[in-house]
Fold this protein.
Amino acid sequence: MNPGWMKTGYWRLRLEILLWRHGLVWLGVLVLLMASLALWLVLLPGGAQQLAQARAELQGVQSGQAVRLVSPSELAGQEDVALVTALDRVALSEQEVSEVLRRLGRIAQSKGLSLTETDFQVTGEGLGGLRRLQLTFPLRAAYPQARQFVEAVLLEFPGVSVDQMLLKRDSVGQRQGEIRLRLSIWTNPAKSGRGST
């Protein structure tokens, strides 16, 4: 006989007797112990890092170094400044808007679309003094034509955003549908005084 098999058989027999005597309680305890061990191994590294960071802050305070915590409102203010800076880079001056409108018409013609009706709406100054000129175009075109138009506009004008594009067809077989496209041209009135950048 193989002594290794006997050793395995011995422990299996012991486990079966233990389960027979005490039921599945021991199996539940074993699963609970394994789960708590796994949880401890997962949470311990994060807790150790937080503890080390807290100790470093405490040593900084004890040694006289000022530790400045940033409040959520200050953090939001910093994010707003970064957003305004990014938008200011792409915002157009008010003098550039008429040229953008002419070029939008040319791009539409090159894609086989005609912009006959346009609804304009200007918003007041918002974050960072930016203004938004919202244009709504009703189009009758196939989706690929409208998509090519939108892609060309976005590539040529970083200061233009697509707010909404609605497509409606009466039937699946209909090639062209009614498209309602809403674009925004972002302007910064302060750039008009500085000239365009």
